Amino acid sequence: MKEHFSSVWTREQRAAKSPTLSRAQIVRAAMELLDAEGLDALSMRRLGTKLGSGTTSVYWHVAHKDELLELVLDEVYGEFTVPDVRETTWRNAASSFAYAIRQALFKHPWVISFIGTTPAIGPNAMRMMSGLVATFDQAGFRGPDQDYAASTLLAYVFGVTAPELSWRSMLERTGLDSNELNASIQPVVEKAAADYPELAARYAEFRHLDVDTSRALNFEFGLTCILDGLEARLNRAASPPANHLPPGVRVRSPKGNDENDAPAPH
Amino acid sequence: MKEHFSSVWTREQRAAKSPTLSRAQIVRAAMELLDAEGLDALSMRRLGTKLGSGTTSVYWHVAHKDELLELVLDEVYGEFTVPDVRETTWRNAASSFAYAIRQALFKHPWVISFIGTTPAIGPNAMRMMSGLVATFDQAGFRGPDQDYAASTLLAYVFGVTAPELSWRSMLERTGLDSNELNASIQPVVEKAAADYPELAARYAEFRHLDVDTSRALNFEFGLTCILDGLEARLNRAASPPANHLPPGVRVRSPKGNDENDAPAPH
DNA sequence: GTTCGACTCGTACAGTGTTCGATTCCACTC
DNA sequence: GAGTGGAATCGAACACTGTACGAGTCGAAC
What we know:
2 copies of one chain form a homodimer.
Chain A: H1 23-37, H2 44-50, H3 58-61, H4 65-77, H5 90-107, H6 123-139, H7 145-174, H8 178-192, H9 197-205, H10 211-238
Helix pairs in contact in A: 1-4, 4-6, 5-6, 5-7, 6-7, 7-10
The structure holds a DNA duplex.
């Protein structure tokens, strides 16, 4: 019953003797395929032919497709650059980090599909986390709060960017531009929103806004929100030693089952 | 070149004459399959046999699998309950809304795979958005800020919950419990973190913490962060009429191309 | 009783990830 | 130089997948 945890990073890379094909090579080819034609374009057969090798040769270097995806994922994590916090304020560092991720995601829209679902424990992910945690250390967070702050920021960025990416992919698929597509969706939305007059009113009111600009503003809005929230916590922690345990959360769940997800305090 | 936008919600449901099979029925069966055995278990063939009908009969009620997924997605959105804001403060409403989503996601872990990538314009998604926007209206936000606040909260909740779900699915797959799995991953992480001593030190320091508790604390941490940030903005807006446009963001992109994703202000 | 549309479904196609066993190739020892 | 063992490649085959197509069934309206 009990299987072991397994990941590309648990297994050693296979010893190189006559490397006509290598992991690095495979990963690069996979990335090119993904960037050029998206997630669906990456099949083992296409990858094989692109590498000029047999279809199944890849399987000697990589256990299965999921491992390959772990590798390319970490490759993208390598592009999430954390600025050196010693050169600016933590707010600036965190902010431009967020924008860097956003940019990298636009470059590799396909990653969002497995960014929360594939374990990110590769070396590049580690490097990124290390830098981000350092940022929040310098900000004044202590203990696990450093991790919490980091994961909060990451969660937000991934969360907002996901729909943006899907929007862009829809643009590509349909060949329309932003405002055309918006107009094309409008009737559906309005029909669905018919039962919620105030919502319909809003859509009518803001229909003229440029979609992309609105998205950019949205991103900035949430980002400053989070940074403000973090700052507020810092200031609060400065005076009274806060107890971060919300009521209803047990410190250790009695058995493997974990139902300590109590609703928020009232 | 230019295709039209298309979604289940654009097409009318097919007229019912002798409904031995119906959309509602299909969606219910699909949900059951998904909840019971996860995303991979939902194939059109299995769905057909579960419904006691031919494999391809479903295709008369639904154009293709993606449409079916749009339908089940909206079904889940129906479980994201927004509390009536007139009965508490907006903070409490937003907070328990966040926890409600979290709970619903735990119940249907598979949705996270297409929650940002499939357009959410079904009636239930609309109802939810309407309620959430109303919450932030009552909080004091005006204009597009209501949308921004809503999408910020949603983005965060989806973003943090995603890795939690992947964690849980790994638990199921391996049959280990939380702390066993954690211990099993530990060496990989430590090895990868070897180059980042401060990171390694952190992991050693907090290894004893219960994973699930830590995750719950993390969720609460980020949530209060966002609520604090929103509140700060409300207070700020009370006195000076803020200009939310960050420098470097054009109000309208000149052509379809949208490169107004300037880095954060320095 | 015929006709027409709603609806079901079997077959077939092109594609997928992956297994298995055979094959090639190279570095090494005797 | 012949021989051996493992590294690496690869072709064929298996069990799947989503879906197009066309033939078939059924119920009601004329």
